[in-house]
Each structure stands twice: as C-alpha cells, then as structure tokens.
Amino acid sequence: ERYCPGLAEEERRQxxxxxxxxxxxxxxxxxxxxxxxxCHGCPCRKCGRRLxxxxxxxxxxRLGDQFWHPSCFSCHFCQQQLVDLIYxxxxxxxxxxxxxxxxxxxxxxSCDQLIFMEECIEAEGRRWHLEHFCxxxxxxxxxxxxxxxxxxxxxxxxxxxSLFAEPCQACGxxxxxxxxxxxxxxxxWHARAACFCCSLCRKPLRxxxxxxxxxxxxxxxxxxxxxxxxxxxSDSSDSAFASAPSPDS
Length: 249
Description:
This protein is an alpha+beta fold and 249 residues long. Among the domains are: 9-15 and 26-101, Cysteine Rich Protein (Ribbon), CATH 2.10.110.10; 168-230 and 242-249, Cysteine Rich Protein (Ribbon), CATH 2.10.110.10. The chain is built from five helices and 16 strands. The protein has helices spanning 9-25, 97-101, 157-164, 221-230, 235-238; strands spanning 27-29, 31-34, 42-43, 50-51, 56-59, 67-68, 86-90, 93-95, 121-123, 126-128, 147-150, 153-156, 181-184, 187-190, 211-213, 216-218. A three-stranded antiparallel beta sheet has the order 1-7-8. The chain has a three-stranded antiparallel beta sheet with strand order 2-5-6, with no helix packed on it. Strands 3-4 form a two-stranded antiparallel sheet. A hairpin with a 6-residue loop joins strand 3 and strand 4 (50-51). It starts with 8 loop residues before the first helix and ends in an 11-residue tail after the last helix.
C-alpha cells in the first residue's frame, strides 16, 4: 500500500498506528495444502462447492478451520486472487491490502493514495486531498470554486469552455457549463428558444416533435420541404436560414 508523501507529522503518526493495527489484527498468509481428513466434505468458504480429503486447498489461520479452492482464495471486493496468498481479514472475509485499507480510510481520486488528513474534499461520491482537487488541464486549485466533471475529474470552467464545450449548431457559440443544452443525433444546441427552434418558422422546439435534416431543425414536414425549396429560391428566402448554417457548408 502506498501513502501520500506530503503527510504532516500528525498524519504520519496516524499512518504508523493504522499500519501497526492492520498487521496485528488482520494480516495473514494462506497455507496451500491438501484438504485433511477431518475436513473431508467441507464446503469451500467462497463458492460452497464440496472439498474432499486430499483435494488442493488453501486455509487461513485467522479464520479457523476454513478451506478455499486455490482459485477461490481471492479478495471479497475485487475478486482478484491474492498474490502469495497474503490476505487481510475483516468480519470473516478476506481482502487484498488495497481494499481492506479502504474499509477504514478514503482514497484520493487524484493520487490514488490513502487520505489521513482530517479534512478532504468530497465531490461526486469521491474524495480528494485538499491540494489535489485541481483542474485536470491547468492544475488551478478548485477548492471553493465552480467546476465541471470531465471523465471523473474536475475541470475549471475556463478550461471546460475553451477545450470541451460543444458548439451550438444554431449560433455557433460554445455551450457553457452553466447553459442548458439539447442534443439530437450527435448535434447540440442551446436550449433557449432562439437557438433550439425551427429553421424556417422559428417555432421553439423544446419538448415538441421535430425533424432534423442536414443539421437543421424543423417543426414539421411542411417546413422541412420549404427548406429544401429554398435552395432554388431568391436571396431573401436564403436569409431566413442564416442563423442556422449547415455543417456541410
């Protein structure tokens, strides 16, 4: 198990006590051996299937006269087989070191190390060291700041809007973190009536039936046919669609 290198002295004291307590109370190493006669017919502690005398098995002294199939001697949480049969036990279950530690201490979503500080930041169901809750792009500290989650990591509003915000199909401006948006067929619009509306008659389309042709929205087949006809109409007709340019143009 790894720990954050920037621990203060009090946190180091907590770490030493935590590690010593785990070793004393929970750490063990399984013993690979044939199932002995007195345990003939006993169920595997994990899968429940019968183990017969002489079958390959693994025992764990901290859990008494219990046996596992070798392939079943795995972490209760992640199901990974335990390297060198080293386990930590808690409430009659065996864990790898990582997931046993997480029963007692949170893990920082940024550095992936245990948190021993009294204070940490909790957001989106995860926790961070105070100094690690930063923008994924520019490393600006985000404690007390507004942010947007991007692939499970926080992003400041400036970086989000310059790097990740989708452009509105109608007005072309980025759809900011605070703006409502509507998506359809992989395209995006501001949810406001001026953008998410029929390209011909300008009827707002939020919550209404719509048709999408070449990246343009229409409230009906009638308006859609009118749009098609505009390709051969006068310049004044073309101007009706200037606010919603086609991505093909």
